Amino acid sequence: MPGHPPGHAATAPGSLASNAMGTKDLVFTVLAALAPLTLIVAVAPLHFLKGGAAVPGAYLVAGVVMALFAVGFMTMSRYVRNAGAFYATISRGLGKPAGSGAAMLAVVAYNALQISTYGALGVYATETFKNYFGRDVPWWVFAIVGLVFVGWLGYRGIHTSARILGALLVLETAVLVVLAAYVLLKGGSGEWSAASFAPSRVFDPGNSAMFALVAGAFMGFEATAIFSEEARGGIRTVRRATYIAVGFIAVFYAFITWVVVMAYGVDKIAGAAEADPVNLVVAVFDRYVPAPITEVMHILLLTSAFAALLALHNAANRYFFAMGREGLLPRVLGRTHPKTKAPGAAGLVQTVLAGVAVVVFAVLGIDPYLGLLLWGSALGFLGIICLWALCSVAIIRFLRREAPQAGIFRTTVAPGLSFVALAVVLFLVLTNLPLLTGAGTTTNILIVGLGVAGIVAGVVRALYLRARAPRLYAGLAQTSVDEPPAGRRETTVGHA
């Protein structure tokens, strides 16, 4: 139809583009946000530092926990389909004030993750530019250039973003597969072992900090539900994409980290990580693959960070959009571009917010990696884990009350087990927060305080609406039902 991108169904004014994303698009968007190459090269060494050879097995354990969470989350998504996924789920299960608090925490968390990644982009780009051209350029220059491109692509709409994210994800995944092939073909360190997956090694009490870190590798997989209003095929597409994403993260990361262990040896990997964590994986590239492939890897680190920025920009936008549409944030954020159906106002706000953060860190001279990246990532990580845990409780309450026919495993066992595991992970993250941030007590208190402030602001806003705008309050989190429970007639409830 005129005014809509090809392949997009007509949508109501102020709505997102319907039928814009298939399973592949959703999977690529979520995995791109996780930045596989960046995680393996820049983050996994810290995992090895705390867990040694047990890291591959830890990824599989974390994958089981996330799969249990996904079972309840996807069952809940049959009844709640909303761009503010956490917000809608928690509102329907724990009440609208709790849902509003969760919404604001999600806004803080996703923006923190997105903005912090500009630190990684700036550092990688500065080093690459210096290596190729011999000149030092401030990190913030590259961050601002990346910010402009991310904002522009986000404005172009989710269809354009999905294509770019898919291409970049394939490239960065391919270079890791090439690394694995060379290590395996050359026999690694000569010591082939499955010790990395032995329960006695993986569940060693000394690995608590490792599990706190490894859980971060899954951060954002649930973003498939954020794009549920734009998914082609409805919740079935979202459900399929979610399980594929969880399975890929767990198996692929376990495999690649096991290859790194084989490159060093089971008994030597921890020592190597302690001796030089920054170059732990880079050294494997240097030792096992041809030099041109290593050069490609360094370039792909830039595209990996850029892909994560774009994917997280789109996710943060959807929360701003959902909150504006609901009236929890200014209504202007709930508007979309008439042609691309992108949340233009929300995208602009997110871009400006990121720009301000980059400028502040640059002016204050705070290290982009040790400051912007680590601090922002820690804030986002804490927020997402809290939301996972709250969702698990909300899922149990809602499904046991409204959809008991879904079965005891989906309504109680899976979300219950995931809540217990996530509560443990949250405790481990809080007790190991200095490790995640590399900062002192004051900074860590500020990071936690920002998350708490987001929750409080959301709850206060909901209570204000309940007292002053009861009709608006009544419409919060009332979303369309995608697949009605058996024996119940399907209904559609409009947004406030």
TrEMBL record:
Compartments it resides in: Cell membrane
One Pfam family, short name: AA_permease_2
Transmembrane segments: 26-46, 58-80, 101-125, 137-155, 164-185, 209-229, 241-264, 296-321, 342-366, 372-396, 408-433, 445-464
Swiss-Prot/TrEMBL keywords: Cell membrane, Membrane, Transmembrane, Transmembrane helix
Topological type in the membrane: Multi-pass membrane protein
Protein name: APC family permease
Upper taxonomic lineage: Bacteria, Bacillati, Actinomycetota, Actinomycetes, Streptosporangiales
Domain of life: Bacteria
